[in-house]
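Checklist before submission:
- one chain only
- standard amino acids only
- sequence pasted in full

Submission:
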Amino acid sequence: MEIRRAVESDFAAMWPIFHAVVAHGTTYVFAAETSYEDGLGYWFAPGVTSYVAEDAGRIVGMYKLVANQRDLGSHVANASFMVDPCYSGRGAGREMGQHCLREAKKAGYSAMQFNFVVSTNKAAVSLWQKLGFAIVGTLPKAFSHKSLGYVDAYVMHRSLDDIQT
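Returned file contents:
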């Protein structure tokens, strides 16, 4: 698997992944009917650095890296990840997570925070904990899960002090 910086022309291959992930209504706040243009803006807005994971030349996942807050909070990174549901369980999330931590450190961030990890997304919560993130807050019933109704979301955080670039 190769992880590289994404370019806007990659979005044609990223879109089916984005659409498949949000259509489930179980892990992301986007509505299933989110437009192509809104998806494109999410991954390629000013200040966003996006990456794609490729296997045999096919994009199988992506992540974006941004400052979690502006100005006085800009030393903390934030990221979003999506893996093609057909490629789930093959390590793309872990590889992108590790890559993202190194890229965040290289970019000068001192920590990373996820503001909204759906509590029922056990695979993501477990992966982030294995990569050193701690749950530092719970947002009660903050996510409207497609089949479970309102469920909690977590705020997760980790320092980047131990990351080698």
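Reviewer check: The two ends are 19 Å apart (CA to CA).
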